[in-house]
Fold each of these.
Amino acid sequence: MSTLFISDLHLSAERPHLIEQFVTLTRGEARTAEALYILGDLFEAWLGDDAVLPDLVPVIEALKALTESGVPVFVMPGNRDFLMGEGFEAMSGATLIDDPSVIDLYGTPTLLMHGDTLCTDDVIYQQVRAQVRDPQWIAAALAMSVEQRIETAKQMRAQSQAHTQSTKEEIMDVNADAVAEALRRHGVTRMIHGHTHRPAVHSLEIDGQAASRIVLGDWYQQASLLRCSATGCNLSQPLSGTTKK
Ligand code: MN
């Protein structure tokens, strides 16, 4: 039995093959998993639980079928889908988890994060993040019509793309001090996160103790998946149903 971790699928109507791959995962390997964790940015954009885009309905149905089959699914909102709430939980059967969360992963306390809060060198990004996580901003966004929300999401995406293109790669990666601080604060020696789209297993030393930082990959080119079991964790591609773009 293993526990599966994925993130940064960025599912949208523009990439229907990724929606198919996700559905395949939920019908295949995930059925025999102990749990499935989705650590942020499952969706390219989530406009609110009351505004599910038709193309994303198969994703919700796939989650529902998986959870009804008895496999718990835990979803951490990312910077694209932070408007997920109780409505999403009800329709999908998944449980939303906080960013950060600590779980007991086969005896090793493990810190789960989306990863964007570790990118502290990107000051502009952190400012925008604080703004859109403000309860007043969220209330105002959810009070908009669906059309307005689509337009707002488009504008935010364009601003984000412009920022990404004009910002150095290393600025947008995690800050080493922020990583160390997070591990220390939670008293753990292992963390799993996504967001940076730089899949890797990093070995570090924190206060003389060996630690590891596992970074999940995105799904833009091909699905990235982390399998953890009692014998350890393995970052790889899914077994089947994967087609390269
Ligand atoms: Mn992200």
Amino acid sequence: MIEPIEHAADILSKAKSAVALTGAGISVESGIPPFRGKGGLWEKIDPMKVAHIDAFLDDPETVWKLLIKDMKTVLDTARPNPGHIGLVDLERLGILKTVITQNVDGLHQMAGNSDVIEFHGNFAWQSCLDCNQSIKTSQVDLTQMPPRCSCGGILRPDCVFFGEMIPHDALIRSQRVSAACDAMLVIGTSALVQPAATMPLIAKDNGAVIIEINPEPTPLTSRISDLPLLGGAGSIMPRLLKAIRRRGPST
Ligand code: NAD
Ligand code: ZN
């Protein structure tokens, strides 16, 4: 029987418009903890108490202290890992067109992918709840909690909290590229957060092959994944790229 990784390499080496959907798992090997799963933040905190917009608006000080402050410290020094680099290589080979990411860490752009849809916004910027001014997260003064804008208003990260809408353009473009792709790589997502988790369904309904990379099975694995590759993105992606390069340029 042909090894799943070789099979995935066959499919990708012929693909012309592949899309990747990534989640927190692809950044685990960059030292950023995911929400769910082993070592996830949810082992320590209740998501609805800290990552819901109502929780933030009710008590921004607690949400800053429990979630946002630690995230800033981790993201300040995080760097792309071989999982992210593999997606850049796939783009350079002319196979991958777009990355749809649920992550807010900016690592796909730092690695060098040119078309990244940030489905849940970006942690690099903060907005003032009062005057809407934007401030770089790296410039936020953490000595006061919650941090404030020069006008005195409270700052919030430009990420989508639970209970908030997905940025309209990100949602529409994601649906469009998912419907048009010939292969979708689903990497490091528990596929439990909606509406991001519908993108592989849209791709599958439109004839794309679904290749999933995750050390654990997800709700997609038995339902729609054509090729589940069990393992961490940082080890699977380099092996996949090696197998694709061995096949040479597609015609
Ligand atoms: P999740 O936290 O719900 O699930 C993480 C998934 O990654 C799990 O299925 C786990 O098995 C898998 N995983 C763990 N290690 C992996 C590895 N080395 N390689 C590949 N996969 C691995 O993640 P989610 O589905 O993205 O949903 C959580 C939400 O939390 C997202 O919407 C995202 O916005 C946010 N989030 C973002 C970051 C980030 O920006 N890096 C970090 C935590 C949470
Ligand atoms: Zn302000």
